[in-house]
Amino acid sequence: MHLSSFLTCLALGTVVNYAAGSDWCYTGCEHTPTHWKDIPGSVCGGNRQSPIDINPSHVKTDKNLHNFTFTNFSSQNVIKSLKNNNHTVKLTLKENEVEVSGGGLNGTYSTLQFHFHWGKTEHHPGSEHTIDKHRYPMEMHVVNLKKDLSEPAKNPEGIAVLAFFIDATDDGDMTGPWGSLTSYLTNNTDSEVAFTHNISINDLIGDVDRTKFYRYMGSLTTPNCSEAVVWTIFQDPIKVNKDLIEMFPKKTGVSNVFRPSQNINGRQVYASPATTLPSSHPWCYDDHCEFSPSKWKLLPQSFCGGERQSPININTSKTVTNKQLTDFGYTKFEDKRAVEYITNTGHAIKCVLKEDLVAVSGGGLGHVYTTLQFHFHWGSMSEDSEGSEHTVDSHSYPMEMHIVSRRKDLSLEDAVNTPNGLSVLGFFIEATDSTKSSSGGSSHHETSSTSKPTSDMNAWKKLTSYLPLIQNISSKATVTEEISIDDLLGDVDRAAYYRYNGSLTTPSCNEAVVWTVFKESIKVDKDLMKMFPTHAGYKNVFRPAQDLHNRTVFTTKSTAGAPVPVLLFLLLACFCALSYNLNLFGLTAN
What we know:
This protein is 12% helix and 26% strand. It has 590 residues and is α+β, with helices and mostly antiparallel strands. Strands 2, 3, 4, 5, 6, 7, 10, 11, 12, 13, 14, 15 and 16 form a 13-stranded mixed β-sheet that branches. Strands 18, 19, 20, 21, 22, 23, 25, 26, 27, 28, 29, 30 and 31 form a 13-stranded mixed β-sheet that branches. 43% of the residues are buried.
């Protein structure tokens, strides 16, 4: 959101500070969005930043979010001027004529301007906020300052922004209010154009139901990112002809003018009573909801019916050795402060890592991947529980750990839409006292059985000690204990693994994952393993194996499981060579 042209707020007697337009950009300069936090005076690295992705399943209804009162939103002569400032197109309103109140706002707000965020084309949308990761083509922000405040940008509720999604249609009106507005669009960033058409804010909003909206506390979405905004995001989008939407990037000469989603950092998003919310999580692992695994492909924006889906059963007799599957490079896997917080998502226990700290490379990946988080899949609390997602020769393990990374040169949004945008390292987990072979009892597998713990059990005790703190879905706990990924993995052989191309194993099942499944399992105390279903409150959180279709599963070269006759032959050869050398130097005992 943009305050770069906020006027000296006459009735409010304040000037809102902001970073000069030349100090930041969306692309093509030193201070792109990831570096906005480095701008002097910026709070863009704060904990209450906007925009965010809104997951309707985690939204709570607030009965106090009553209907709004809009003053002069229907007036057709309040728009004073339009300007392209190279970051957005902003329409300034006449002073002290438009106001908004109600809607759960704490006071009356004076409306100053509205502006837009957009992408590049119809296929590259540009709304700032997203709903369940869905990005609309555009977003309109109506900016309001709380009356009677001298410095609204320094007050947690000093600014109220009304956000409207804009969706593209094939048959929208080309000559109505939006047609008139787009006629003013220009690539001239030096002048402000007087607006002479008789158009009201209501004319642009159209028939959007303004009783349905989300609410959360956030920030401006452009530098200096002041954390002073009460955000209202209306559920229903404004419908605009797609040709008019495309005029924004074409006529202004700027595109992709939106900030990526920011971390929600434990904030709660609320909804007005009229807002339609899912009664429960839209998808689940069993049959207690409408969308069980067999129906995930029916979910909106789902790829779960594709031909490159995960997990799979790995048939070891059909794997192909690939010499390019070399050793991995692990950056900061040994860092005992890398885990930022642990959360209960309602589908898994997830450990989120500190931003841009941990990375993985090598291993035939071809790119450096920034590690984002790791999470777990498990079965039930029974002794013979099976809960891994991948299987080996149809054998399941009790648990599976996934370490998720995105390509360092891609945003997360781009990564989930790129065939190798994500890398996931999968580790099987079984009990320390397991009598089962690490191969799952298969003679084809290349590792031998062991009951020796392969991980630091103290690290697992520290990790599971947080589980009682996050028994509620969406709850999170800051990790203060020293726990590294290396500690959790222990001495598992990371040179022996399988590789195939697949997908995320939860909706929307994007086919963007380079999968690495390690052959040797992590050994963990079975009582610690039982804490996952006990404290999370759910069980059997794994997707069934998917059809391999025409994919090939590759494997690293290994001699760990060489047949016994071969081993005996090698030992005999070594013994003979040793005897020959001893005889040669006269060192044998007679």
